[in-house]
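Quick review question:
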């Protein structure tokens, strides 16, 4: 069984997909490290309208609490587009952990390359805020 077959299912809103694909088409983002991994994740995702996103799924601009499984260390981050990545507590969709979080549901785990390249297993514990479940379907 390949690593791809072991990856958890992903659900991504069509709005998030369109915006990410637009960024991927720009030279400044197209060649960033980790873009290939993000593109693979987008290709395997189930794409739905923003109105159909379950409230337990990590979407763009969601605030998510997750843990590193090996250390049980918890993190709380907002998944953002690159323009907002400099704010405290925010992680860009182009960062390895950002790519790993997008589309996962509460309780799911994924193994992803961390900043040093070593594999990290992350588990989604809670969605503290999700735009779609708050009625912000086109934020």
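Suggested answer, residue by residue:
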């Amino acid at each position: 069984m390949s690593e791809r077959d072991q990856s958890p299912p992903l659900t991504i809103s069509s709005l998030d997909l369109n915006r990410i694909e637009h960024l991927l088409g720009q030279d400044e983002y197209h060649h960033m490290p980790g873009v290939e991994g993000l593109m693979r994740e987008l290709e395997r995702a189930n794409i739905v309208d923003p109105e159909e996103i379950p409230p337990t799924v990590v979407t763009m601009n969601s605030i998510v609490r997750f843990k590193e499984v090996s250390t049980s260390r918890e993190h709380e981050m907002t998944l953002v587009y690159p323009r907002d990545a400099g704010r405290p507590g925010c992680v860009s969709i182009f960062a390895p952990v950002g790519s790993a979080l997008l589309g996962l549901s509460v309780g799911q785990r994924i193994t992803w390359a961390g900043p040093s390249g070593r594999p990290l297993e992350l588990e989604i514990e809670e969605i503290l805020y999700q735009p779609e479940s708050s009625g912000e379907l086109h934020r």
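Why it works: Confidence is low (pLDDT under 50) at residues 1-5. Strands lie at 11-13, 46-48, 63-68, 73-80, 90-92, 109-113, 119-129.
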